[in-house]
Amino acid sequence: MNSVPRLWKELSESSDFVCSEHQTNTASLFIGYFNSVTDPKILHQHILGCLSKEPDISFDELYHLIPVAEKEISSDWDVIQNKILRGNVAILNGDQSHHCILVNAAAFKGRKVTVPEIEFTVEGPKEAFVESLDINLNLIRKRVPVPELRIKELTVGSISKSRVAICYIKGIANEQYVNTCIQRLEDVQFDQITDTTLLQQMIEDNSNSFFPQTIGTERPDYVAWALSSGQICVLKDGAPTVIFAPVNLGQFFVTFEDYYLPWIIGSILRVIRMVSVMFSVFASPIYVAVMTYHAQGISNVFLPTVVSSRINVPFPPVVEVLIMELVIELIREAGARLPTKIGQTIGIVGGIVLGTAAVEASLTSNLLLIIVSISALASFATPVFRMSVTIRLLRFPFIFAAQLWGILGIFICTIAMVAHLLRLQSLGMPYLVPFYPFRTPDLYDTVIRPPYSKYHHRLSFIRPQKPVRFDRKNANKKRDIDE
Fold this sequence. Notes:
With about 475 residues, the chain is of the alpha+beta class. It has helices spanning about 5-10, 40-55, 60-65, 75-85, 135-145, 175-185, 195-205, 220-230, 265-290, 305-310, 315-335, 340-360, 365-380, 385-405, 405-425; strands spanning about 15-25, 30-35, 70-75, 90-95, 100-105, 150-155, 160-170, 215, 230-235, 240-245, 425, 430. Helices cover about 45% and strands about 15% of the residues. β11 and β12 form a beta hairpin. α9 runs antiparallel to α13 (about 365-380), α11 packs antiparallel against α12 and α11 (about 315-335) runs antiparallel to α14 (about 385-405).
């Protein structure tokens, strides 16, 4: 298929491809389009309407007369094929001609802009990205109305032909990170790209790692903040999630609602999330280690309670913990896969019934039930879903290590995890900055959320070309009108 007439014949084998002939006094025009992706209003009013009003119009005159901005004349059969498949109307000048007028008449069918469903917030804007790339770019442009905002569009996927856009602010984003992101997207070799989550796995530095190296969000305000910080964002047509990089480990425990709250409250919430993550990972393994090897470390005050809760349990601590952890994961997966109302009922009723029945049947102790329940709740405190899944699964290697070597096994597993994190990168940036390499000035927006007067410099580990946000000398000055 290396000519336009042969392409035309090939497309005619599809039942939703419409081909009609319009005879003028000077030419015979063939009009072809897919009615499943074409807007009938644009077709009849702007294209067929011009032909009916001007019976003596020529091929070249028709191009200038059609009142549609997105149009072109092409003889490249590959371009013509892609345009027609995306909703363009092709006007062929004769059945053996190789020149087509391509008029964009694509029909938009999809969700309207709604509130965020995953990253819901009480404070701040309520708009969320949708599955249309053009609408998502509009949401970004509306929040970043500067000429330095650059958008580079690529086509990825041999079958899906997915439109992928890379956004960054020229003069702020580091050119090395931009070029790395573009190169990795251009090197993607896959036939069907259905969502940005596939691109995440394909462009990350280490796709075999448990830990995600890019952050996905459905909030345009978060993307605008990331762009102004010097990060690069990737959007895909048909995906309601935008990913951005480079990122460090600390950003996975930051929710953008922190920036809408007073800085003291935002900082306290960040610390609570980090403590929750530590508890979620280490609580169950420490229980196994203490009950198996280090029972002498239990205080005499708590010893009778611990003994009475486990006196009738026939299983060793590791089996007891694994049973409860697997039951929690089973309830969580069942609740996530079922419809919303049924899933909530299954989660609540299943947790209460199974927990009570397990204790009464002496399959587990009251103490462990409390620990596992709090650990499950603590894992939900992580704002980014991919990182929360990582935290959930990370407990199991620690549990097995605690069973083998006790507290020493937990330390060994922790050292192995830290060694892996030290080697991890995001678009070539170290994953553990600003802790390693240690950068004191960048700690202010990782552990705590400082007041905005302290945001006079962008995070240095992102290596922005313009590190200064504003003049800090005038940041704390507050003048009244009578001064």
